[in-house]
Design goal:
alpha/beta; Rossmann fold; EreA/ChaN-like  fold; Four Helix Bundle (Hemerythrin (Met), subunit A); 3 domains; 7-stranded mixed beta sheet; 20 strands; elongated; binds S-adenosylmethionine
Length: about 650
């Protein structure tokens, strides 16, 4: 009888090691796994001849050298989770189980999968899980994978497999436009939205048959994965929107009228179309669907003043106009003024206070006031630290990709030295203002006030240093405030939220969550309210925007650069639509087609167009980040209100800022 053990060692030495496979762990695995168990009955004597052999269903067990090359190319580490597409006999899965932590293997033929499972089980390899199915779509429930090996040749790289790779993960697969003639390709996912391909040479595999591979009848030319281009798919799924002031614009959003919370985003803090669209949708949600809370990304004390005036009450005790600190144009603009004018008229018509619509600030208690106080303090105490703080607050954004900014601040000893002074400055400010607008509003109770004071110290220290922790603290606070507002307005209460896309779009579907463990109010709303939350994003290709170059800087009207070629915005632009709604719940194909992360532009109160790619773009999976996306191809900057307008009646649009 043939000495299989001897034959195996000899094959590994002469056919595998001597022909270029260097990875000792791969060689050891090949020395260990008995290939004779995996070949068809009667073929055992050929098991160590280094050739592919026929197995049932017209398939093959791969040539050992090719198996070894593919596993080596996948650079599998002991802790890795690996996906194999095309279990076949189960041999390659068995070899990989000796070098990886876990192996998942999919086979489209049930008989092959069942035989393979029995073989692997009999050998006692417990870290292999098999299933029957179409592996061209991967195994999403088990993703992401550190490595994916495809043992059958496809016409193109299946997007689903690339999507299921971990960052840094490797996909090794034969690809070719002829069913049995391919190039072995290694694709490495170097970043969420960036892949690098390498050609590892010519191979001949059986075809990959499936949704993202070949059709079963191989005479039919390969079905393109996306039969039409992405912009064409966007155009096909888009619902055209009329002008914002046409009633039909807001009526399009009636579909969200039954939600508990509707979150309306914006792709910048200085774009008129986003404000006007949100105002129109909000009016419709209030008038037609009974929403009674408008909660915005603004400081509580300033919004509280607006809330009082919008309800026909006297303004704040100290009488100062709201939203006078940087970035003033975010709220003191003609679009917000027009909305608040409507809100006051609406509330007047409604009458009693409980039925009126309230306007609230969700942001960390007086965040902008605190930042102003920090800057004022540092300007006096340490101008160098003040410059750093300005830079840092300009970067208090989740999409910030410039690590040097944070690094520089930490390295400066002056910055650290000022911490005590800054924190006590902020505490004083908090205690002073808590004595004012918060108490008499009656909407945040004493317990919340006490919590606020108790956590103030920690909050100010975290905010001072910035980073993911401060972002999470802020968004958690925004969510808790929203939750509190809903709870105090009763179980049937409903809210519209206005905040930047970076707060509204589910952070888990963007670089924020994927790379930096940042969460946001959109994610928290989805987790709490499920389908009763609607996350609606907004986007644009080009135009103008109101923004500053640095925190505390003057507002400028800046030109928005045309969106980058590889971005979601560019795909929308190329769709030819000037203004439309993409409702992902009603566009299954588009959702699928946009399942890969792509760049998305985020402009806040700062816009630095010269470093745009680095400072304003991050990757996201748009149809999972948002439930719907509102597109304006060209947009314009908001018009700020002039500083002081003494005659409020003569210029009603300046309400409530002009008194
Ligand atoms: N690695 C296997 C081994 O060691 O025996 C060899 C696999 S054989 C070359 C390719 C296998 O891929 C075949 O068993 C074939 O049925 C399977 N296959 C083809 N298309 C597939 C698909 N879409 N999903 C899962 N398996 C597929």
């Amino acid at each position: 009888m043939l000495d299989y053990e001897y034959a195996r060692q000899k094959m590994v030495d002469t056919h595998i090691a001597r022909r270029g496979v260097r990875d000792e762990r791969v060689l050891d695995a090949m020395r260990e796994v008995p290939r004779e168990v995996f070949v068809e009955e009667g073929f055992e004597e050929f098991a160590y001849e280094d050739s592919p052999l026929p197995i049932s269903e017209g398939q093959t067990i791969s040539q050992p050298l090719v198996v070894a090359h593919m596993i080596e190319a996948a650079e599998i580490e002991p802790a890795d989770r690996v996906l194999e597409v095309g279990t076949g006999s189960g041999y390659a899965a068995a070899v990989m189980s000796r070098v990886a932590a876990e192996v998942f293997s999919i086979e489209r033929h049930a008989t092959l999968s069942e035989m393979a499972r029995r073989r692997v089980e009999a050998l006692g390899y417990r870290n292999v899980t098999m299933k029957i199915g179409d592996g061209s779509e991967g195994w999403p429930e088990q993703a992401p994978f550190d490595a994916i090996l495809v043992a059958a040749g496809g016409p193109t790289l299946p997007p689903a497999l690339k999507e299921q790779l971990e960052i840094g993960g490797r996909l090794v697969m034969p690809v070719g436009r002829e069913p049995r003639n391919q190039r072995l390709v290694r694709v490495t996912r170097v970043a969420a939205n960036r892949f690098e391909d390498e050609d590892l040479g010519g191979v001949m595999f059986v075809p990959l048959i499936g949704a993202q591979g070949w059709q079963p009848d191989l005479t039919v030319p390969p079905r393109p994965v996306h039969p039409i281009s992405l912009p064409e798919q966007i155009a096909a799924a888009a619902e055209d929107l009329p002008r914002i002031d046409d009633p039909a614009f807001a009526e399009t959003f009636d579909r969200f009228g039954d939600r508990r919370v509707v979150l309306l985003g914006e792709a910048s803090h200085g774009t008129s179309e986003f404000y006007r669209a949100r105002a129109a949708i909000t009016r419709r949600l209030v008038e037609k669907h009974g929403f009674e809370i408008v909660a915005v990304e603004a400081d509580w004390p300033d919004a509280a003043i607006v809330n009082r005036i919008a309800r026909g009450l006297s303004p704040a005790p100290d009488g100062h106009p709201p939203f006078q600190r940087f970035p003033t144009w975010m709220w003191r603009n003609t679009d917000v003024a027009a909305f608040l004018e409507w809100l006051r008229a609406h509330n007047e018509g409604v009458g009693d206070i409980p039925s009126q619509v309230g306007f609230y600030g969700l942001d960390l208690y007086n965040m902008r006031g605190s930042i102003a106080a920090v800057l004022a303090y540092l300007d006096g105490a340490d101008p160098q630290a003040a410059a750093i703080a300005r830079q840092r607050y300009g970067c208090l954004t989740p999409w910030q990709n410039e690590p040097s900014t944070y690094g520089r601040a930490v390295l400066t000893s002056g910055y650290r030295k000022c911490e005590e002074g800054v924190v006590s400055q902020c505490r004083e400010l908090l205690e002073r203002s808590l004595g004012q607008s918060l108490h008499d509003d009656g909407l945040l109770d004493a317990a919340q006030n006490a919590r606020l004071v108790a956590s103030a110290e920690k909050y100010y220290r975290i905010m001072y240093y910035g980073g993911a922790e401060s972002w999470n603290l802020r968004d958690r606070h925004m969510f808790e405030t929203l939750d509190h507002l809903l709870a105090s307005a009763g179980p049937s209460s409903r809210a519209v939220v206005w905040a930047h896309n970076s707060h509204v779009g589910d952070a888990r579907e963007t670089d924020m969550g994927r790379l930096r463990s940042e969460l946001n109010i959109g994610q928290l709303c989805r987790e709490r309210f499920g389908e009763a939350a609607a996350l609606i994003g907004f986007g644009t290709h080009s135009g103008s925007v109101a923004a500053a170059s640095d925190w505390d800087g003057d507002m400028e009207v800046k030109q928005v650069r045309p969106s980058l070629p590889e971005s979601h915005e560019r795909l929308c632009h190329d769709s030819g639509k000037s203004c439309c709604l993409l409702d992902f719940a009603r566009a299954d194909d588009l959702r699928q087609a946009l399942a890969e992360p792509r760049l998305e532009r985020f402009i806040g109160v700062i816009y630095r167009s010269e470093t745009e790619r680095l400072t304003h773009y991050a990757a996201a999976v748009l149809p999972r980040q948002f439930d719907a996306f509102v597109w304006f191809d060209r947009t314009t900057a908001v018009t700020p209100l002039t500083a002081f307008e003494p005659d409020r009646d003569a210029v009603p649009l300046t309400f409530p800022f002009g008194y």
